[in-house]
């Protein structure tokens, strides 16, 4: 599939791409971009850094930039893009953005991260959302469990699975995974208004409220349904537990769907996808983007621009996101090629955007900058691992967030 024209390219040029897409489903999606660029004479120098939340990749990136050897393009999330742009390290993509009309088709919530000081510095690849539950349909059917619609029903469903001797909740004990569940739990407790006030505006009173205590109580409930071997488990291995029927549920962003599809599973037949009960109508999002680091070589600049053009082409946005499990970063991409979960995700994203219930993910750097995000990680994970009770965790959270600002 040719994704772009090569007119204006003096010669083939390589792009060095730093990313953390290393699981099976993610690698399959990334091949869509690699193959498209190769068809147009642009080579791909792969620089994968494993780690689903991207923290290891950002550490590697910092070392590369410090040594004066920045990659061409880097997978990046949310406020990390703004931080690098503030340092003056990112390339200006205004020319290609104007040619391709990005302003008219990229949702404003994404542009807030794709642009710095009014200039395009990154090309959004997708929109993921984090408040999803993935379920093994055969396990639920065998136990006579209907898809839960409320938090109480979800707890009862997990209890029924646990009583059957199976693992109710597949989870990987890594800070970003704990925080990913926390996104949905906060929404389930207080809705969008509380989520924004406490975790985006960082209002100390909201952060220290009984709603936060309840969020931590619900996290403790989730912990009671995970198996004892969860610590350190990669997210895709937790997905595999649900895929294989070893566990019933996983709370994870919609990148998990790529693992189900990669295993040949069909939504509605083999697995279910639904919003964390209590968050229907709300969407906590993150958007993978490729931030382009400033290059001095003109051929490298040209290749970089063509990569950005390719990423934003409707054909690529459809082909990539069908495989990845996410939805397109532009609003004019048809949903014909998407499966039932993908179509649902596209509808819910559009509705949340229109209704004001689309919020940036706490866990994935779209609610606050890295210092605050990491402070929240520390408290959420310490609580999840039993170091604090809910009331203590709430007090620690207020203190940690205040210190990080």
What descriptive keywords fit this protein?
disordered N terminus; 14 strands; 5-stranded mixed sheet; alpha/beta; 405 residues; globular; 4-stranded mixed sheet
Helix vs. strand class:
alpha/beta
Any low-confidence stretches, pLDDT <50, length ≥5? 1-11
H/I helix tally: 18
Instruction: Report the end-to-end length measured between terminal Cα atoms.
Output: 46 Å
Describe this structure in words.
The model is unreliable at 1-11 (pLDDT under 50). This protein has a 5-stranded mixed β-sheet, with helices on both faces. The protein has a 4-stranded mixed β-sheet with strand order 9-10-8-11, with helices on both faces. It has helices at 24-39, 55-66, 79-86, 94-100, 102-105, 108-114, 137-143, 151-163, 175-199, 204-207, 210-225, 235-243, 256-262, 298-312, 314-324, 340-355, 370-384, 390-404, and strands at residues 14-19, 43-48, 73-77, 115-116, 119-120, 122-124, 128-129, 132-136, 167-169, 247-251, 271-275, 283-286, 288-292, 358-360. The chain has 18 helices and 14 strands. It is of the alpha/beta class and 405 residues long. It is globular, with a radius of gyration of 21 Å.
């Amino acid at each position: 599939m040719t994704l772009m024209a090569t007119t204006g390219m003096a010669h083939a040029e390589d792009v060095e791409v730093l990313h953390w897409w290393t699981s099976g489903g993610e690698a399959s999606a990334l091949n869509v971009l690699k193959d498209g660029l190769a068809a147009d004479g642009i080579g791909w120098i792969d620089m994968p850094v494993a780690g689903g939340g991207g923290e290891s990749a950002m550490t590697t990136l910092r070392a590369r930039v410090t040594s004066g050897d920045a990659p061409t393009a880097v997978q990046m999330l949310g406020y990390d893009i703004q931080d690098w742009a503030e340092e003056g390290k990112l390339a200006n993509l205004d020319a290609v953005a104007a040619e391709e009309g990005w302003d008219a088709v990229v949702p404003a919530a994404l542009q807030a991260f794709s642009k710095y000081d009014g200039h395009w510095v990154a090309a959004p690849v997708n929109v993921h959302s984090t408040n999803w539950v993935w379920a093994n349909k055969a396990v639920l059917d065998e136990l006579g469990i209907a898809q839960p619609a409320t938090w109480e029903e979800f707890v009862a469903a997990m209890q029924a699975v646990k009583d059957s001797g199976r693992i109710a909740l597949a989870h990987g004990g890594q800070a970003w995974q704990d925080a990913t569940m926390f996104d949905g739990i906060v929404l389930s407790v207080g809705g969008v208004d509380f989520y924004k006030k406490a975790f985006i505006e960082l209002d100390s009173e909201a952060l220290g409220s009984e709603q936060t205590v309840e969020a931590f109580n619900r996290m403790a409930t989730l912990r009671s349904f995970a198996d004892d071997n969860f610590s350190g488990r990669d997210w895709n291995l937790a997905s595999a537990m649900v895929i294989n029927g070893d566990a019933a549920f996983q709370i994870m962003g919609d990148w998990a769907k790529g693992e189900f599809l990669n295993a040949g599973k069909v939504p509605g037949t083999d697995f279910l996808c639904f919003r964390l009960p209590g968050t229907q109508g709300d969407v906590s999002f993150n958007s993978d983007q490729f931030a382009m680091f400033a290059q001095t070589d003109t051929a490298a600049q040209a290749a970089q621009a063509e990569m950005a053009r390719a990423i934003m082409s409707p054909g690529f946005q459809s082909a990539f996101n069908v495989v990845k499990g996410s939805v397109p970063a532009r609003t004019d991409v048809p949903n014909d090629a998407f499966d039932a979960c993908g179509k649902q995700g596209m509808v819910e994203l559009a509705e949340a955007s229109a209704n004001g219930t689309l919020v940036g993910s706490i866990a994935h750097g779209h609610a606050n900058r890295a210092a605050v995000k990491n402070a929240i990680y520390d408290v959420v994970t310490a609580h999840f691992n039993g170091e604090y009770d809910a009331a203590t965790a709430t007090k620690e959270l207020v203190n940690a967030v205040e210190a990080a600002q």
